[in-house]
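Researcher: Next sequence.
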Amino acid sequence: MHSLRFLFVLTTILTSGGILSAEERPNIILIFIDDLGWKDVGCYGNDFIDTPHIDRLASEGIRFTDFYSAGAVCSPTRCAVQSGQNQARIGITAHIPGHWRPFERVITPLTTMALPLQTVTIAEALKDSGYTTGYIGKWHLGNSRSTQPDHQGYDFSAVINGPHLPGRFRVQNNADLKPQSGQYRTDYEADLSIDFIKQNREKPFFLMVSPFAVHIPLGAMSAKVKKYQQRAKETGVALPHPVYAAMVEHCDDMLGRIMETVADEGIDNNTMIAFTSDNGGLYRRYDYRESADDNVTSMSPLKGEKGSLHEGGVRVPLIIKYPPLTKPGSVSSEPSISYDFFPTFVELAGGQLPENQIIDGKSLTPLMKTPNAKLNRSALHWHYPHFHHDRPASSIRERDWKLIEYLDGTGDLELYNLSDDLGETRNLSESKPGRTADLKQKLQKWRVDVLARMPIPNPHHSPQRAHEWWSMRTGQPVPSDQRKRFPPTELDQ
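Model: Next structure:
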C-alpha cells in the first residue's frame, strides 16, 4: 500500500487548481530564433519569404501581435527567459561580453558576464515538476564550463558554436556530438531536437531550441539562395537580402520537421510549441560603415532594429500552439514579453514558482484561452544602457503609450501613442507634457525598484573620438574600417 502511494505521489503534481497526472502535463517546446524580426515571416505580413510551417503553426494556434523581447539584443532576453525576471535585476543588460565607446558622453555600465548559478531557471522549475529538460543551440549566458546549460537545470545540453555553413560549427564540450559531413547548422539543430523528442516522448519534457540563425554572418545553402535571388530580380525587392531570406526558410524547415516529429510520435495533442525571437531584426551591423556589410532586412513599418528600444528592436513574433487551450487561427493583441514564458510553462506543468525569486512575468494561459483577455500588469519596461544601434536608453509601455528616455547625458525623451502611430513617427513628448512626466516618473521608479545599473558622466569624453568602438573581449579598438564583407554566403547542396 505504501509503495503504491509513493508511486502515486511521484506521478502527480499538486497545484492550486487540482492534481495533474503525468499524462496531463504537456510537453513544452520553445523555439527561439536569433534576430528574427517581427515582419520576417508570412503570417506577420511578409510576402517575400516562404514560411509555410510557421504560417501553419499560426493557423493551428494563437498569434500574438504585441509580443516583445525583453531585451534589444540576445543575452538580456535569454536571461529573462531563463529567470522569469527582467534582466535589469541581474545586470545582464548587454550581449556578453559586449563592447563600448570609451570617449562618449557617458560611461556605460558593465554587464554581468554569466547567468548566476543561484538563479532558479525555467529548466530547474520544470525539473521540480517531473520534466526531462533539453537545450540545443546558442546559449550566450556565460562561456565558462560551470555556467553552461547542464549546470542550469538542463538534463541534455548541446551548446553549438560557430557560423551556419557546413564545417564551421561544433558542439561545445561534447566531442561525441558531430554533424554529418556537409550539414547546415540549422539542419543539425533540427536533428538533435528530433532525437530528443523521440527519446523522451513517454514522459513530460521541456526542450528549448535556440538556433544561431538568422544572425549574421549570413550563410545559407545555395538552392534556397538562388530562389530568392531570382525572386528579388523578378519583383525588384531590395530587402530582405536573398541569403537572409534563405536563412529564414531554413528555420521554417526546422520548425516543420519538429512539428512532423511531434505528430508522428502521437504527442501532438499534449505538446505545446512556442515560436519566437530573442530581439528585433537587423538592418545592418552596428557600426554602419558603408563599406562594412550588406543590408540584411527591414522592419518597416516599425522604426528601429536590433539594439534599439524602438518597436523594430523589441517587437517580435510569438506563435503558440497547444490544442487543449489555443483556438486555431486566434490572435491576441495584449502586450506580453519574454519573461512571461516562465510562469506560463510552470502553470501548465502544474508546478510552483520559486519562493525566493521575484518573477516579473505573467502567465499567458488567460490569453491562450481567451485571446481578447487582458493581463493584470500595469506596464512593460526595458533598460538598455549601452551604445549599439542606438544610444543608451530605458523605455516603458503603458497600454497604448510608450516613452523612451535616453541615458546618454542628453535627457532626450520620446513619447508615442502606438494605437495610431505604430511606426513611432510623431514624438508627442512636448505636446503631451503631463503624460510624458507621468511615464518618466514611473520609469525612474521602476529602475530604482530593480536596481538598474546606469551610465555615468565620462570625464574622458572626446567629441572627436566618440565614434570609436572598443571590444570588451580584447580591450582594444574594433577595426571596423578593416572589416571585410560577409564571408561566402552559400554552398552547393
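Model: Residues 1-19 have pLDDT under 50 and may be disordered. The first strand starts at residue 12 and ends at 15.
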